[in-house]
Write a structure and sequence with these properties.
- Helix content is 60%, strand content 12%.
- The chain has 23 helices and eleven strands.
- Helix 2 runs parallel beside helix 3 and helix 13 runs antiparallel to helix 16.
- The two termini are 27 Å apart.
Length: 506
Amino acid sequence: MIYQVLIVDDEEIVCRGMAQFVKWKEHGFEVAGIATSVEEALLILRKMHIDVVFTDIRMPEKSGIDLLREIREQKFDTQCVILSGYSDFDYAKEAMRYGAVEYLTKPVNLREVEQFLDRMRTKLNKLVEERLGHTRQMEGLLLSIARGYASADIEKYGLPKLDNWYGVSIFMTEREADPDKIQAQKGLMKERIQAVITQAIVLDSGNRSLFAVIPFQTKEQLNYFVSVSEQVCSEEKHWALAVSKEKKGIGGLSEAWKETESAMRYLLADMNKKIIFYKNIETLYVEEAVEVPKLITSFLQKLHTPEERSDAANWMEQMLAELEKEKQMDVLKLQTVCIRIVIEVNGYLKEIGMEEISLHDRLNEALRQLLLCSGGKEVLRYMASYLEWIMECIGQADHQNVGGGVISEIQSFIRQHYSENISLNMLAEQFYMHPNYLSRLFKEKTGENFVEYLTEVRMQKAQELLRDSEYKIIEICGMVGYDNPRSFSKAFKHFTGMTPRECRER
């Protein structure tokens, strides 16, 4: 990483000489700008991020002390170095009170500057690591809250306070098997969103999607977000957006997550659409008294379980017939239930490796046929044929032994999120798979079970941190996903044959 330097001195020749003769790049720095006054320096600081400012103390109008005071008051995230003559020692002491980290005498000794740069690079590297670790922990916590695994306790966790906001799932509509390419594309999309909506909190939600929290205070800001979203989707052909209803406070994260997931699945039924708002499809969802989510979950569980799979289609036909009879559903509500089933099952078939184009065609055909049905009996007859087709697809998938693509994605997800509280159930939910099926498929494709792979990733990262960082062992324990230091030490010893302390001392 190259750090940015600003040189400030009222004599331009001094600035240019220092910029030219110090071997900045050899020590990990580059001169981003020079300024001959405090006002000019502040303009540069407002336009770009500067890591280190070298400033003379004695300058006309405003001094280096004034610059340090402004940097402190305006909360610029930068390190300040004072350049002064021997007679300015009292000024230098005052500069230290305003946060200067170093005092160098003029004329500048190049070797002394370069030795300082080496020390400063070490300090900045450590700061970057600490901030990155904090950011990852915060993102992991927000994701855990969104998925319902943790409480939204703002004071306990130091979470950001949110007023009005929307949750947005940004997901790839094109299936890409290479995990590295997926991560690269997600990284570019994340940068693009944050470049145009600076207050957005964008989280890597795994698989082929991101989850963003988009704050807004006025209707104009909301309209701007919508227009930017439409522009991004029109330019990025293989991305689409699903937007939750308006939320207030961080406690709405879990609800927003569920809404975007529902909207996302509905959007997949029509690949011509690029953005969908949950509020526009909410009326399509039947009352919870019908227990449709439980019905779908039970059906998917039967599909996942080999010994129950053969009877899954008959079971679902019976359940739908009972719903129509006992709940006295009209045809519209029964169609809606079946559309939800078709969309959910389509996602499942995609995840077990079914070819995406044929799935898309079949999904559109199923939705069209269901909407053409004029009565409940006709809906049930069509669903019987659709369920028969599902069973044939799953049988072919088992025969062809597909599924390696999604396991590669899961491995990539584990490598990215090893510091979080990852469990088999969480992964199964994240990738729309039954835990039993995921466990069996993971073992089949990798030769090891999920826990073994997760432990391996964590232990490799722990060894790297023990060798190459100055973090305490108890800090590393938390950074690789362990709450209990004793459990961490035991796992580390089992994996490496030595204790964490022995590893560090080698």
